[in-house]
């Protein structure tokens, strides 16, 4: 739970008593490689904070094509947010790509923490805002840049993921073929 405190205190300080209270709302889960945290159609009860490992958040369209929305690594939050916040069944999947651990909490826990502790409301607002900004940047990049530019931006933002994630998934995330990614990867070395 020390990592949770460090994560929160990057945004807002907590007293020992406040943190003791906050941590009662989170549970720890060890996740195996290839294990799913969410399947399409599931009731989405939890939001997850990644402590370790790498996860992919994706959906599958009617033709069976997988599209990766997000890779999540240490200190990233993930869920099927439409389902989580609107208490609907999931339209996304979350799969563990590299074994790790997550902390998880319910929407009710998040709401109660936010109502009772202004610092946590501020924390969740900042995290949600940062996630929204990152999502807008990703959409802009997908709609208005070349594959080369998308690869360069991904490499700049997430250099450690280039070596940890199979190339086929990076290609899927960038919206390019595996062959195109191989050419971009070779040119970037």
Verbal overview:
This protein is α+β, with helices and mostly antiparallel strands and 189 residues long. It has a domain of 112 residues: Jelly Rolls (Sandwich), CATH 2.60.120.10. Helix content is 50%, strand content 24%. The protein is built from 9 helices and 6 strands; from the N terminus they run ααβββββαβαααααα. Strands 1, 2, 3, 4, 5 and 6 form a 6-stranded antiparallel sheet that branches. Strand 3 and strand 4 form a beta hairpin. Helix 4 packs across helix 5. The longest helix is centred in the last third of the chain and has 27 residues. It is globular, with a radius of gyration of 18 Å. The termini are far apart. The relative contact order is 0.15. The mean pLDDT is 94.
Describe this structure in a few short sentences.
With 189 residues, the chain is α+β, with helices and mostly antiparallel strands. The protein contains nine helices and six strands; from the N terminus they run H-H-E-E-E-E-E-H-E-H-H-H-H-H-H. It has a domain at 2-113: Jelly Rolls (Sandwich), CATH 2.60.120.
């Amino acid at each position: 739970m020390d990592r949770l405190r460090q994560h929160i205190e990057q945004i807002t300080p907590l007293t020992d008593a406040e943190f003791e209270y906050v941590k009662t709302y989170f549970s720890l889960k060890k996740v195996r490689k290839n294990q799913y945290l969410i399947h399409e159609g599931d009731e989405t009860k939890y939001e997850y904070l990644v402590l370790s490992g790498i996860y992919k958040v994706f959906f599958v369209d009617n033709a069976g094509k997988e599209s990766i929305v997000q890779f999540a690594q240490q200190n990233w939050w993930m869920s099927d947010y439409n389902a989580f916040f609107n208490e609907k069944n999931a339209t996304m999947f979350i799969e563990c790509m590299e074994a790790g651990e997550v902390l998880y909490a319910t929407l009710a826990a998040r709401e109660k923490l936010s109502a009772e502790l202004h610092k946590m409301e501020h924390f969740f607002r900042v995290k949600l805002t940062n996630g929204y900004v990152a999502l807008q940047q990703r959409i802009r990049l997908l709609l208005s840049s070349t594959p080369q530019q998308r690869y360069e931006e991904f490499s700049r933002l997430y250099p450690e993921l280039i070596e940890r994630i199979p190339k086929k998934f990076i290609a899927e995330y960038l919206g390019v073929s595996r062959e195109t990614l191989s050419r971009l990867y070779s040119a970037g070395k």
